[in-house]
Design goal:
- The chain is of the alpha/beta class and 375 residues long.
- The chain folds into 3 domains: 10-107, OB fold (Dihydrolipoamide Acetyltransferase, E2P) (Beta Barrel), CATH 2.40.50; 113-270, P-loop containing nucleotide triphosphate hydrolases (Rossmann fold, 3-Layer(aba) Sandwich); 290-375, Orthogonal Bundle (Ribonucleotide Reductase Protein R1, domain 1).
- It has 10 helices and 13 strands.
- A hairpin with a 6-residue loop joins β6 (113-117) and β7 (124-129).
- The longest helix is centred in the C-terminal third of the chain and has 49 residues, at 326-374.
- The termini are far apart.
């Protein structure tokens, strides 16, 4: 059986991170669900209910960006919002007809994904997919909050990508060395880069993480200078920025996620500022983010030590000796409790859904039996 597939787009898509693994996944999807001619594409921007995708055209020699909507089958088959495409995803699309939109039929398996808990509901939100580096951005002097960065690090490690902490606006800081040292103490094993996107100081330090064909995502609170940094890396004013407020805090400017290509060939995803960041299924990421605490905890006398009043607690000994930061340990406990509560809520919702499903089945059986014996 011959498959109706567009010409090999590898040459055009390779600068977007396309490789043999993604090609294999795409071929499997086409073979499993033959039908209309489809092409691989990468999601480069996301708006409400609409996506912008980049695909090969002209026999696979050039890139084309076009609007896209979801196929009805994909929208209904997605059990959760987590299964829907996001910026960075590779997708299969039916190319757009003149004057129309492309149609996304499938999302290729993700290599990595930065996932947080959605606000106001027990559900996941995929912020960016298929990223190699997570650039966690905080602005000096006031925004470099170690506890918040620890949250980002837990989710970044869980994503499968490599985190890097980026401290911006060093031109406004009187003691950048102290701030960098404090951040390194809260992010053991993670590179910390200090720079000024406005003046360009230190920006070249990011070159080692932004290689051709690799994807990085910028994450952080509103007003920390992410868009200014993107413009500096691009060498042009592509993204809108706002002046710093009188209180020294930045202003929110980015309203949607967007993937841009840098002159180096690296790919960079800019994201809107996050007002809050709640964990989602980040057990292994939390262990990695707090590896220093976890390592000490393995020396406790009891395996289920809560590090409070138990005898032989290595963690409390390390805190007393100054080898561990007590506030960092307290935050580790807080994040563990948050994950435990999330798991409990997920179990409750799953049980409620199963009860609802059972009631529907029981009701259908009763109706069927009534009809059967009345006839």
């Amino acid at each position: 059986m011959s498959l109706d597939i567009t010409p090999d787009p590898s040459d055009a898509l390779r600068p977007l991170g396309w490789d043999a693994s993604f090609r294999s996944s795409f071929d499997e999807i086409v073979a499993r669900t033959p039908g209309a001619s489809r092409a691989p594409a990468r999601v480069v921007a996301q708006h409400r209910g609409r996506w912008i995708v980049a695909r090969a055209e002209g026999g696979g020699a050039a890139l084309r960006e076009e609007g896209a909507v979801l196929a009805g089958r994909l929208r209904h088959a997605a059990a959760t919002a987590e299964a829907l495409p996001t910026v960075g995803d590779w997708v299969a699309v039916v190319p757009a007809s003149p004057g129309g939109d492309a149609v996304v039929t499938d999302v290729l398996p993700r290599r990595t994904a930065f996932v947080r808990k959605a606000a106001y509901e027990v559900a996941a939100q995929v912020v960016a997919a298929n990223v190699d580096v997570v650039l966690i951005v905080a602005a000096l002097p006031a925004d470099a909050n170690a506890r918040r960065i620890e949250r980002y690090l837990a989710l970044a490690w869980e994503s499968g990508a490599t985190p890097v902490v980026v401290l911006t606006k060093v031109d406004l800081s009187d003691d950048r060395d102290r701030a960098v040292a404090a951040m390194r103490a809260s992010a053991p094993g993670v590179d910390v880069v200090a720079l000024s996107a406005l003046t360009g100081e230190g920006v070249s330090a990011l070159d080692g993480y932004l290689h051709a064909g690799r994807t990085a995502v910028l994450l952080g609170s509103s007003g920390v200078g992410k868009s200014t940094l993107v413009n500096r890396l691009l060498g042009q004013e592509r993204l809108r920025t706002s002046a710093v407020r009188e209180d020294g805090k930045g202003r929110h400017t980015t309203t949607h996620r967007e993937l841009v290509r840098l002159a180096s060939g690296a790919l960079l995803i800019d994201t809107p500022g996050m007002r809050e960041l709640q964990l989602w299924d980040a057990d292994s990421g939390l262990d990695t983010a707090f590896l220093d605490v976890e390592s000490v905890a393995r020396g406790c006398r009891f395996r289920d030590c809560r590090h409070q009043a138990e005898p032989g607690c290595a963690v409390r000994v390390a805190i007393a000796a100054g080898r561990l930061d007590g506030e960092r340990v307290n935050h580790w406990h807080k994040l563990q409790r948050e994950l435990a509560h999330l798991a409990m809520r997920q179990d409750e919702l799953a049980a409620a859904a199963e009860r609802s499903r059972s009631k529907v089945i029981e009701r259908a059986v009763r109706v069927h039996l009534r009809r059967k014996y009345r006839s």
